[in-house]
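Troubleshooting: if your tokenizer reports a length mismatch, compare your output against this known-good record of 129 residues.
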Amino acid sequence: MDADGTRGRLEEERVRLQDLRTSFEQEGLSEESEDESLGELSHMVQHQADVGTETFNRERDLSILERVEAELGEVEHALHRLDDGTYGTCEACGQRIDDDRLQALPAARFCLKDQAVAEREARAAGERS
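Known-good structure output:
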């Protein structure tokens, strides 16, 4: 594993994600309530489908923004692990994460086995709620 190359890839990804977040913020998505975002349309007679479309688009954009924030957190965490020397080590079992996995997903926190366990647990928790 090339630490400098990995750092460069992670920093590029951080910039890309920060740019995405900034574009959402410039659109006022994170500051504007749903009523405010639909308010500009309120002076016209609105068909329910139009309001539904606007609501769907807003929820989609908020979901994308949430995912961007989560990915940005993962990239930041990976950069900290590079700094403290723990990058490439599975946070669950302490074993080395395969280089192919790190090449494909530089912010990986878990080996494949423990990633599968974490995903199963997340799905099970989601089904219970």
